[in-house]
Each structure stands twice: as C-alpha cells, then as structure tokens.
UniProtKB/TrEMBL annotation:
This is Phosphoenolpyruvate carboxykinase (ATP). Keywords: ATP-binding, Cytoplasm, Decarboxylase, Gluconeogenesis, Kinase, Lyase, Manganese, Metal-binding, Nucleotide-binding, Pyruvate, Transferase. Coiled coil: none annotated. It comes from Sulfurimonas marina. Gene3D superfamilies: 3.90.228.20, Phosphoenolpyruvate Carboxykinase, domain 1, Phosphoenolpyruvate Carboxykinase, domain 2. Signal peptide: none annotated. GO terms for cellular component: cytosol. It comes from the Bacteria. GO terms for biological process: gluconeogenesis. Belongs to the phosphoenolpyruvate carboxykinase (ATP) family. Pathway: Carbohydrate biosynthesis; gluconeogenesis. Substrate binds at R54, Y190, K196, R316. The lineage of its organism: Bacteria, Pseudomonadati, Campylobacterota, Epsilonproteobacteria, Campylobacterales. It catalyses: oxaloacetate + ATP = phosphoenolpyruvate + ADP + CO2.
Length: 527
C-alpha cells in the first residue's frame, strides 16, 4: 500500500505495514507476537485483556454546531468537543507511530448500493483477524481499487490520562467523527468496539438515505421466505438464526431497503458459555481453523472448557460466515415474511410465543425489552429489566422513532407478521423457574416460519393482552400460558404487575402531546 495514506492520517515513522494479511499470515503473527493460544479444535484463543465486553459509557460522537444535527444526543450518544477529540486523535496517532501496523480493509454491507468501505489500523494481529472474520472480505480485485469511506485508528494500548480534566467517563475512549469519517479507540482491546462501532455508523448513514438498519439476525427458508430476529444481547439472535433448515443471512446486523434485506457483516460472533454441541451443533462445528475464540479457558492439551466462565460469562467466538455450511452466499434476501422479537424475560411473565397486532409490534419495538439476571453474587436472584429502544438503542445515533417509522412503513407495505418470543424464564422468575429450552423455543419459531401457528386456537392474556396459542405441537399447554406455568398464581400476578408497571413507566417518553408514536394503548393495562 501507499504509505502516504497512513502518513496523511497523521502517523509518523511507520514501521512495517502488514496490509490485508491472509488468515495463515495473521495466524503466524498472532503466534509470533504471543497474542493467542492454539486450541485442539483448530481455532486460536485470545484473551482480550481488562475488557471482555464493550464500554458503552465511553462512547462519544464529535459535536459540531450546526452540523450533525441528526444525532439524538443523550446518555447513549454523548457529545465530545472537537478540541478534546483533536487532542485524543494525537494521542492515538502517537501510539500508532513508530510501530509495525496491521491495516485491514473490509466492507460493511453486502448490498452494493449501501455498502461502506472501512479501514482498520491496529498494532495487534488478532484485532486484524477479528475484523477480517466479522466484516465482508473484499476480493483481491476489490482490494486493488479499495478506497476507504471510514477509518478506525485502534490505539487500544494507550489511554486518556486527562479524562477527568476533559470531563469524560474514564480513561477509555471510543470516539466517532461522522463528518471526518474517522473513529479513534483507546484504553480497551475489546474487538466488539470495532464491530458495533461501525454498526453505529451504518445506523447513522442508512436511515438518512431512507433505508432501515436493524439490530437483528436473518435467515431464509427454501421457499425464499425471509425471517428477521430482533433482540438485545443474549436473547438468541445468533443461536436461533443458525438453523440447518434455513440459509443464514447474518446473525446480528442488517439493512432493509426497497429490494429486501442484506447483512452488514461477513461473519458471526457467537457466545460460547456452556456451549452444548448437541443443541448448537452448527456453532460448535464453526469453531475450527480461522475462528477466533475470546476469553475461554483451555487446558494444557488445548482443550476448551466451555463451561468455565471464570474470565467472563461473555466468552465468544468470531468466525467467517462460510463456517456455517448453510449460509446465503450473497448475504441478501427478499422482504421478510415474518419478524420475531426475541426477549429473554427473566421475570418469567411473557409467554413463549405471542402474535402481535400492528400496534403491539410498534409498542414492543419501541420498548425493546429484555431482562438480565442480576450480578454473580450468591443469593441475589432478582432479575433486572432492560428497555433499549428498537432492541439496540446503544447503537442508534438517531432518535428511535426514526427507525420505528421506517419499520412500521415496511411492515405495512409488505404485510409482515410480527411475533414476540420469550427465550427466557418460565414457571417462575430467575431463581425459581427455569430457562425455556432451545428445543421448545425452536418449536415455537418453526410453527411461525412454516405457518402452522395460524391453525392454532388463540387466547388473550390478562394485563399484557397478548394473543397466544392454546396448544402448540409438543409444547406443554401449561408452558404456553405463563400463568399456568407458575405454581403460585398470586406470585405470578404480583410479578406480572411489577413488569407491566415497568413497561408503562418506560413508555411515558413516547406519550408526548400529539406524538404519532404513542402506542401506549397497545401496552399492558394493570387492572
Ligand atoms: N431458549 C433459548 N433460546 C435461545 N438461546 C438460548 C435459549 N436457552 C439458552 N440459550 C442460550 O442463550 C444464549 C443466546 O445468545 P445469542 O444467541 O448469542 O444471543 P444474541 O445473538 O441475541 O446476543 C446462547 O448462549 C444460548 O445457548
Ligand atoms: C456482539 C455483540 O452483540 P450480541 O451480544 O448481540 O451478539 C455486542 O453487543 O458486543
Ligand atoms: Mn449475537
């Protein structure tokens, strides 16, 4: 590559540039740099350092007045001044100067009309490997004429010493300048910052072109019927879209334009905590040469103990989508027939499957509900509700209603069916009940995708007013209606009302005067 391209960014005395290395070359570098360990499944394993997850509180967008007026400033889209950005840009450049660098050129977006070219600069080989796995790998012809639309300088080995003086959250910084098309990262090695960072940029660019961007997985059946699975982290996007009977389009980030659905990425990022090859055989088999495991525990023979969460519960593997044999080669498909909102309700209140009305679809999309299980301290078992608009508020630079409006229009135009599927707890909240089995969840999903759910007789739940099938295949009828799944009805009613109140409370923000997004009537009603 022309070294001037890096010098123009402000990098000085650049050492060797390892530009678009092959997997085998990267592998050699990772081993020579002592970054990774080999495992007996052929994949390499890396420890990502202090951070084993993203740092959302350290993410910022450069504020300019009166430009970038579209950004919905707030807790998830925090502003940083041009001056501070400039200062940290220099810190990042200094860190990456006088170094050998890994430069990786990739695409984000499989649709030619929407794709962006992204260049990542880093001093760590595994980070180059990670972005190569996760983004779309250009052909050698495409690399010859590659011009980046956006550049990420990953200076993770440096930190912001002056964060207090700057009035920032911590010494970690993940900052985006949507005008200059550049991002800088410091203080965290975690690869997810690069993946979800560019996703945030897609969520900025696409809606401004009238295209919807979505935090969802997607797959397509033999008849060409596309399905989308929206959901926050841990709700099952990756697990459930990886289905041997349906071609995988992608497991996490998609766009939807006038032609249909397209993946942003070229790889998957699966959780491997307690990975069971029997219930997730495709993901287990994807862990082979070129896959990159993160923060797993291995023994001396290179055997991975997937049940060991001692480094983090967020153990992961990234792999190119080709590792899933049944994937859609062009990473695109037609307009969806079915949309599934996944939620992992740790309160054990929401039914395993509900068919949503048009209004309920908008209500649950804007609510973006899931629940996490509370900390790892012993004895603390109270679930924690999370409401993250559009099932991905942390990645949305624009106001949630921008995405909701686009989704609503597309649902109407293409007559899409929308369902809510609870992959979380049943028969009691976290601590007393148990998690839905992947088998039962798949049965719910299969009945949606093959249309057989339409032959079911439905009933409507109290308070939430959700339409649920009375019987469905081999799933116990008592499980289909959570009220019957709980031993103690009083306890169920109490927990349901608590959750209902949280929904109502959260939705107040859309109930401003003459708001076209006041779908509160479609939400729960406490008697
Ligand atoms: N009923 C279920 N449906 C989906 N996933 C489940 C279920 N029960 C347990 N799991 C586990 O929950 C996790 C879901 O995570 P994942 O599919 O990575 O979610 P996402 O991609 O939405 O972040 C996986 O580790 C999976 O094994
Ligand atoms: C990769 C991520 O997404 P998910 O947990 O939804 O798979 C992430 O949030 O960093
Ligand atoms: Mn996922």
């Amino acid at each position: 590559m022309d070294i001037k391209e890096l010098e123009d960014l402000g990098l000085k005395s650049i050492g060797q540039v390892f530009h678009n290395l092959s997997y085998d070359e990267l592998h050699k570098h990772e081993l020579a740099n002592h970054e990774v360990e080999a495992t007996n499944q052929g994949a390499t394993a890396v420890d990502t350092g202090i951070f084993t997850g993203r740092s959302p509180m350290d993410k910022y967008f450069v504020e300019r007045d009166p430009s970038n007026k579209y950004i919905a400033w707030g807790d998830v889209n925090k502003p940083v001044s041009q001056d501070i950005f400039e200062e940290l840009y220099e810190v990042a450049c200094e860190q990456l100067s006088n170094k050998d660098l890994y430069v990786t050129d990739v695409f984000c977006g499989s649709s030619p009309a929407s794709k962006r070219s992204v260049r990542f600069v880093s001093e760590i080989a595994w980070q180059s490997h990670f972005v190569k796995n996760m983004f779309i790998r250009p052909t050698s012809a495409e690399l010859e004429v590659f011009k980046s639309d956006f550049t990420v300088l990953n200076a993770c080995k440096t930190v912001n010493d002056k964060w207090k003086e700057h009035g920032l959250n911590s010494e970690v910084f993940v900052m985006f300048d949507v005008e200059r098309n550049i991002a800088i990262i410091g203080g965290t090695y975690y690869g997810g910052e690069m993946k979800k960072g560019i996703f945030s940029m897609m969520n900025y660019w696409l809606p401004l072109e009238g295209k919807l961007s979505m935090h969802c997985s997607a797959n397509v059946g033999k008849d060409g019927d596309t399905a989308l699975f929206f959901g926050l982290s841990g709700t099952g996007k990756t697990t459930l879209s990886t289905d041997p009977n349906r071609a995988l389009i992608g497991d996490d980030e998609h766009g939807w334009d006038n032609h249909g659905v397209f993946n942003f990425e070229g790889g998957c990022y699966a959780k491997v905590i307690n990975l069971d090859p029997k219930s997730e055989p495709e993901i287990y088999s994807a862990i082979k040469k070129d896959a990159l495991l993160e923060n797993v525990v291995t023994n001396d023979d290179g055997e991975v103990d997937y049940d060991d969460g001692s480094k983090t519960e967020n153990t992961r593997v990234s792999y190119p989508i080709e590792h899933i044999p049944n994937h859609k080669q062009d990473l695109m498909a037609g307009h969806p027939k079915n949309i599934i909102f996944l939620t992992a309700d740790a309160f054990g209140v929401l039914p395993p499957v509900s068919k949503l009305t048009r209004e309920q679809a908008m209500y649950y999309f804007l609510s973006g509900y899931t629940a996490k299980v509370a900390g790892t301290e012993r004895g603390i078992t109270e679930p924690v509700a999370t409401f993250s608009a559009c099932f991905g508020e942390a990645f949305l630079p624009l106001h949630p209603t921008v995405y909701a409006k686009l989704l609503g229009e597309k649902i109407d135009k293409h007559g899409v069916n929308v369902y809510l599927v609870n992959t979380g707890w049943t028969g009691g909240k976290y601590g007393t009940g148990k998690r839905m089995s992947i088998k039962d969840t798949r049965e719910c999903i299969n009945s949606i995708l093959d249309g057989s759910i339409n032959n079911c007789e439905f009933e409507t739940t109290e308070v939430f007013g959700l339409n649920i099938p009375k019987t469905l295949g081999e799933i116990k009828p008592s499980v289909l209606n959570p009220k019957n799944a709980w031993k103690d009805t009083e306890e169920f009613n109490k927990t349901r009302n608590t959750l209902a109140n949280m929904f109502v409370e959260n939705f107040h923000k859309y109930q401003t005067e003459d708001s076209e997004f006041d779908y509160s009537a479609a939400g729960p009603k406490i008697k």
